[in-house]
Design brief:
By secondary structure, the chain is α/β, with parallel strands linked by helices. The chain folds into two domains: 2-133, Potassium Channel Kv1.1, Chain A (2-Layer Sandwich), CATH 3.30.710; 141-284, Glutaredoxin. It is 50% helix and 17% strand. The chain contains twelve helices and eleven strands. It has helices spanning 2-15, 17-22, 48-51, 57-61, 85-94, 103-115, 119-133, 147-156, 179-197, 248-259, 269-307, 314-336, and strands at residues 34-39, 42-47, 76-78, 141-144, 161-166, 174-175, 202-206, 214-220, 223-229, 231-235, 240-244. The chain has a five-stranded mixed β-sheet, sandwiched between helices. A hairpin with a 2-residue loop joins strand 1 and strand 2 (42-47). Helix 6 packs antiparallel against helix 7. The longest helix is centred in the last third of the chain and has 39 residues, at 269-307. It starts with a helix and ends with a helix. The model is unreliable at 1-24, 310-321 and 333-337 (pLDDT under 50).
Length: 337
């Protein structure tokens, strides 16, 4: 089908030379080794031998059998989008090309290759599009063995990264009743995100960290931009406890910010500045609340110890008083009835 299209195009070129000249198109000097192309506003300088190397529409256009339209500066005009024309030139030069990873850009490149009747490039694009349509059922999560290895991996990898630290060996105190469930919820969310976005984001699991028990870290362009620590120490009347939380909304929010770093260029500065200020405000407010809770817990513990003695404690007296008031209110309601 492609060969017949080329043959038809050649017949059109041969019989259309006079009409093109009559319509105001100027002749091009094909004796020059290099040609200047204006493809949809994108300018390209390339050797004529590159354009005529393979049997396609470009060979027919630059074989000297037709007049091509030029602008006032002598650039040959081609009425196509120039976004992928550089990729097409690279393929014509040596027969190999680095295809884009995006399925949308692959489809765009396929359309351009089809227009220029480059069958070899069309086949490469078709194979890549088929792989996108039927992705491998593989989810890759990297386990790291050292912090140095983690930093080298993140800086060398082009994708943004999400790391979760999960290490229960760091715990010095007993857990609160909901901590075990929240640990599992954090781990399950990490697994769900890795299954869904492993092709776009690098997922790292740290099981040897020595500083935290459960912590999320988000990286973009090789640098850390956000961190969520899910553990804290709470004070009870008898001893300290380790509390593990599941800040689901904040994890989703920072994960969406991570997707902004897929673009090799920097994300929108105003958006990232607003995100950083919001994150700093949340960290300050969380730290302030933790300090207030710690002070309040210590004060309550001191009051309970001061009130303990041979008689009933203050908390027991308050409980008895509450029961007394409740019984009085119940008896009064019965008398009214």
């Amino acid at each position: 089908m492609i060969c017949s299209d080329i043959a038809v195009f050649r017949r059109i070129v041969v019989f259309g030379t006079v009409s093109n000249t009559a319509s105001g198109r100027t002749s091009v000097n094909f004796n020059s080794h290099y040609v200047k192309l204006n493809v949809g506003g994108c300018l390209f300088n390339t050797a004529k031998s590159t354009l005529v190397k393979l049997d396609n529409m470009l060979r027919a256009m630059f074989s000297g059998r037709m007049d091509l339209e030029t602008d006032s500066e002598g650039w040959i005009l081609i009425d196509r989008c120039g976004k992928h024309f550089g990729t097409i030139l690279n393929f014509l030069r040596d027969g190999t090309v680095a295809l884009p990873e995006s399925a949308r850009e692959l489809a765009e490149l396929y359309c351009e290759a089809k227009y220029y009747l480059i069958s070899e490039l069309m086949e490469l694009c078709e194979n890549a599009l088929n792989r996108h349509a039927n992705p491998d059922a593989i989810c890759k999560v990297i386990f790291i063995t050292s912090e140095k290895e983690c930093q080298q991996l993140i800086q060398a990898h082009p994708k943004p990264a999400v790391k979760i630290l999960m290490n229960r060996n760091n715990n010095k105190f007993s857990y609160t009743p909901t901590s075990d469930d929240n640990l599992l919820k954090n781990l399950e969310m990490f697994d769900r995100l890795s299954l869904r976005f492993s092709s776009r984001i690098l997922f790292i699991k740290d099981v040897i960290g020595t500083n935290e028990i459960c912590c999320w870290t988000f990286y973009g362009h090789g640098k850390k931009f956000a961190e969520i620590c899910c553990t804290s120490i709470v004070y009870a009347t008898d001893k300290k406890h380790t509390k593990v939380e599941f800040p689901e909304n904040r994890i989703y929010e920072e994960f969406l910010n991570t997707l902004l770093y897929e673009n090799p260029q920097q994300p929108d500065p105003e958006l990232m500045q607003a995100t950083s200020q919001r994150g700093a405000g949340l960290q300050r407010s969380t730290a302030a609340v933790s300090d207030d809770e710690e002070i309040e817990s210590k004060q309550q513990t001191a009051q309970a110890e001061a009130a303990s003695g041979p008689g009933p404690s203050r908390s027991s007296s308050s409980l008895a008083l509450g029961r007394f008031r409740k019984s009085n209110s119940a008896s009064n309601s019965n008398n009214n009835l």
